[in-house]
Amino acid sequence: SGTSMACPHVSGVMGLLKAAHPNWSPAMMRSAVMTTARTQDNTGAPMREMDGKEATPFAYGSGNVHPNRAVDPGLVYDITPNGYFTFLCSLGFSTKDLSRLSSGKFTCPAKPPPMEDLNYPSIAVPALRHRMTIKRRLKNVGRPGTYRASWRAPFGVNMTVDPTVLIFEKAGEEKEFKVKVASEKDKLGRGYVFGKLVWSDGTHYVRSPIVVNALD
């Protein structure tokens, strides 16, 4: 168990995905592995820590990997090189800092978006103050379909998704959505709390863990 075993297993799965989808970006493959993972153990019960307590995404990440499901995830969260560069700008790096990475072809926006907007398959808000809106973008890598959102908000956090329905008419089509989170004043001070977001067309289940630390 642990990272010593997870690393070679996931590396092997990524090799299989690259063989099945040679044109997918590394971010698309990572998304497929993460969003098709499951948080139950091999008995169907929630995964637990060594002391018997129910585990959280801080222990299992996205969950147990399912390679066959990862080959056909339905939707993926893709990230371009410019997406990573913009994320680094949000962390305080300058255009000059990134010049070697970008070969001088990227300029930081005047007002970088929040770092939470990196199009990653999970959502983490390490310092929620009152409320925040997080943006994500999904790409269809399967058949045309209609995906509906369902979610479980972290404890003490009001959460909404807009829109709640995404209609994809062709492969490669991308759609954006927003996740809005707001802290409940009488339930602060519990540290990191956990939830999830699932997009499904009835066949595919695109899962994302959500982690929020509400400060005020």
UniProtKB/TrEMBL annotation:
SUPFAM superfamilies on file: Subtilisin-like
Every Peptidase S8/S53 domain range: 1-48
Keywords for the protein's UniProt record, in alphabetical order: Hydrolase, Protease, Serine protease, Signal
PROSITE patterns the UniProt entry points to: SUBTILASE, SUBTILASE_SER
A Pfam family annotated for this UniProt entry: fn3_6
InterPro entries reported in the protein's UniProt record: Peptidase_S8/S53_dom, Peptidase_S8/S53_dom_sf, Peptidase_S8_Ser-AS, SBT, Subtilisin-like_FN3
GO BP terms: proteolysis
Highest taxon, organism lineage: Eukaryota
A GO term, aspect molecular function: serine-type endopeptidase activity
Transmembrane helix among keywords: no
Domain Subtilisin-like protease fibronectin type-III: 117-212
Gene3D superfamilies named among the record's database cross-references: 2.60.40.2310, Peptidase S8/S53 domain (3.40.50.200)
Family label: Belongs to the peptidase S8 family.
PANTHER family: PROPROTEIN CONVERTASE SUBTILISIN/KEXIN (PTHR10795)
The protein, known as: Subtilisin-like protease fibronectin type-III domain-containing protein
